[in-house]
Specification:
CATH architecture: Orthogonal Bundle
Oligomer: single chain
Number of domains: 1
Radius of gyration: 17 Å
Structural class: mainly alpha
Mean pLDDT: 85
Low-confidence stretches: none
Number of strands: 0
Shape: globular
Order of helices and strands: HHHHHH
C-alpha cells in the first residue's frame, strides 16, 4: 500500500503548502507565518526515520522553492537536512509523546531561520542579526511550535492509520 501512503503524503504536503503560502499570509492578526512545511518534515522524519524524513523534506523543500520563485534547491537543502536530523531521533524516542517533537521542532525552526538569514541576508551584507532574530526567527519559531502542538497529534494519527493499513495489506499477501 505504498501508493496510498504516497498519495496521502502528497495531500498533506499540498495542504500545508496551500495554508502556508496561500491562507496564512492573508491573516491580518499574525505578522509572521508559521512554517507548516517544516512541521510536516520534522513530524514525519521523527515518526518514520531518516529516509522517510528526507523524502518528505525533499518534496516540502521543492514546494517551498517553487513558491519562493528563487533558486531551486535553496529550501530543499535545509528541509532534507531537517528530515534527516529529525529522522535520527526515530529510534530513540516514542513518537506519541508531544513534548519532544515540540522541542525538536522549535530547535529545527531556529536552525531554519538562521540558515535563511545566513544565505539570504548575511551574504548580501545585511549584518543586523539581532533584529532579524527578534523580529523574524523567534516569532516564526514560536508560531511554528504552537501550531506543532495542534498539528502533531493529527499527523501522528494519519501515520498510525497508514501503518495499520500497510500491516493489514501485508498480511493479506502471506
Amino acid at each position: 500500500m505504498k501508493i496510498k501512503r504516497i498519495l496521502v503524503m502528497a495531500a498533506v504536503i499540498f495542504a500545508a503548502w496551500l495554508l502556508q503560502y496561500g491562507l496564512f499570509p492573508l491573516c491580518p492578526w499574525i505578522d509572521t507565518v508559521p512554517n507548516l512545511l517544516l512541521i510536516v518534515t520534522v513530524s514525519f522524519g521523527f515518526m518514520k526515520g531518516k529516509k522517510h524524513g528526507m523524502a518528505v523534506g525533499f518534496f516540502c523543500g521543492l514546494t517551498a522553492d517553487i513558491a519562493s520563485m528563487g533558486t531551486l534547491g535553496f529550501y530543499m537543502a535545509v528541509f532534507i537536512l531537517a528530515g534527516y536530523l529529525n529522522g535520527a531521533f526515530h529510534r530513540w524516542m516514542y513518537s506519541d509523546y508531544i513534548v519532544f517533537p515540540l522541542i525538536v521542532t522549535g530547535f529545527t525552526s531556529l536552525l531554519y531561520g538562521s540558515y535563511v538569514y545566513l544565505f539570504e541576508f548575511l551574504v548580501r551584507g545585511r549584518l543586523d542579526f539581532v533584529y532579524y532574530l527578534l523580529h523574524v526567527i523567534i516569532p516564526e519559531s514560536l508560531y511554528t511550535v504552537i501550531l506543532t502542538a495542534a498539528l502533531y497529534p493529527f499527523l501522528s494519527f494519519i501515520n498510525r492509520r497508514l501503518e495499520l493499513t500497510e500491516r493489514r495489506s501485508a498480511t493479506k499477501f502471506v
